User: Fold this.
Amino acid sequence: MTKKTIVSMAVVRRLPRYHRYLEELLKNDIKRISSKELSEKMGVTASQIRQDLNNYGGFGQQGYGYNVEELYNTLTRILGLDKSYSTIIIGAGNLGQAIANYTNFERTGFNLKGIFDINPKLFGLKIRDIEIMDVDNLESFLSNNRIDIAILCIPKDNSQIMANRLVKAGVRAIWNFSPIDLDVPNDVILENVHLSDSLLTLSYRLNEDELLKKNNEEK
Ligand code: NAI
Assistant:
């Protein structure tokens, strides 16, 4: 079991998308937008947007719509993007290195402080000035550095043991890329990312017509 949110997760999962759209609008110097326009752009109903935002107090005015900057700033705060976070990556293979090289996370306040691996051949190598360290030094690093988020990019067989180590050392949020359901205490926030879920959804949709046709023929 992981930590529960006060607002439903379905709503929470839509917020980054609202934030992204509003950022685009701001970049294009659009100062206000009607709920109808916003809903058409996002493919979500206007009432859905209203209901989602009502969880955080009322936004938008009848006849005026939304003030883009105000809503963007509020969502920035709600998403915790007005703060910064220290992160570490565990596993400096293909995925870990790709994430370490992606500088955009830093732009949004997620600062990479350390990279750890088990493979001695990688120790001492640097990714964007951050040295890959021996994972044996993880606990001593964590006792000297306050880390908010651990990004887990190791083979699944080692992931639960690693999650236990991280939790024991005081890490309270894990961004897990390993294809495994981790067991963590209630007060630890766990977010799983599985690119393959998205890819399989794509392949399902690619084959949907065929599946439907087959089902109709069988009826
Ligand atoms: P990789 O084999 O290139 O890298 C794994 C790295 O983890 C290696 O450098 C290895 O030495 C290190 N490692 C192994 N055990 C460790 C431990 N206990 N502590 C520290 N480091 C350790 O593999 P790749 O392609 O980078 O994938 C990593 C993980 O991410 C795998 O579990 C893979 O299934 C998963 N993955 C998940 C994706 C997703 O969408 N969630 C997408 C791609 C990979």
Q: What stands out?
A: The chain has two domains: 9-78, 85-196. The beta strands are 32-33, 66-67, 85-90, 110-117, 126-127, 130-134, 149-152, 173-176, 189-192. The chain has nine helices and nine strands. Residues 195-218 form the longest helix (24 residues).
